[in-house]
Amino acid sequence: xxxxxxxxLQYNRDRSFIIIAMLILMANASYxxxxxxxxxxxxxxxxxxxxxxxxxxxxxxxxxxxxxxxxKMHSTKKIILQGLVGQLIIxxxxxxxxxxxxxxxxxxxxxxxxxxxxxxxxIQVPSYSITGHLFSEQISEKIAKLEMACNxxxxxxxxxxxxxxxxxxxxxxxxxxxxxxxxxxLYFFIAICVMLFLDERIFNINxxxxxxxxxxxxxxxxxxxxxxFTSYFFLGVTAQALRTxxxxxxxxxxxxxxxxxxxxxxxxxxxxFFGAYYIAEQKKYTLNQLYTYCLYVGAxxxxxxxxxxIGLPQSIYIICFxxxxxxxxxxxxPAIIMPLFVQIMEKNKHKDxxxxxxxxxxxxxxxLGDLIGPIIGGIFIDQVGFxxxxxxxxxxxxxxxxxxxxTSHIDQEQQGIELQILIH
Length: 424
Hints:
MFS_dom; disordered C terminus; globular; mainly alpha
């Protein structure tokens, strides 16, 4: 009887994986649509870069809170549906907030961004977690494919906004509002797909193990996990310190309008998509090696965002090249990091909790960086300007990469285990 149940479940898991990939795609498309549109609107309302950073940081704050809570819960279809409904309602209200000004706009936008982060995480954490259980023997490949879906969503976000911006110039409607209303419609559509096609049984895999309380204090006593998570957090800080304000920089310094900014934002995600594909297929390098390369390449990309500080002209072509390099380095890192967390957990005899911990730290680590990065970036840019800030963030990431390379011993310990097996 158990064999029949398992066979039936395996038959449906590929369909469930497609729905999960759609969820990841949609969650990231809606996130990316906000990046080029929201900061210029906030500035139009009379707020400084620091004000932009504060409003934008409420989103990752919600992600962090939700990640912590979800990391201790059994993933369910109901949680995902609640996240989808939450995103639908918030998108509509956020579109209406366009008509507000002053403190009311600031407060409402901050609150909505907070709950938007919670709803988004309610979609993503269970999706990554259940993928880790469904495909425990193929986790690197499947997570990399989810990151491909993520990056495709990050491509679709600016593309949709760019098309809406062009249509807005023709038919005279507000791009910010209608982008959000369109997002609400898409969330309604995917909620229907989840209700109809996402197999409820996949959430009951290893339920007994998932009910065991995860002690994150004990988890972070694992040296390799601590070092890896810390570096991932700082990667998010340095990357988001610049990314949040790039749309303003493109408009004010490079005279790039909103529509073209949307398409430029696609360069990074397009490269990241193929980076995730490479990670899913390659067998030559270890996850630890790939992640180390990502940190160094990411540092180079941040340096190029401030061309005037390294003797290069302030050219839009250099920014485009920086986005290509950033996609190779920073954009590929998330496809590596969850399998790397899972590998570390399994090596330290925490296999039953590896998927939950990996999915939680994947979202929480980047969200922490997304929370602190815009605040730090806003402060630095207000004081020294965008180009100098890019050099500072690049230098910081180089230091983090060097420390990680010299303190993470994942590959060395794995080689030691393999050597002992050969000896015996």
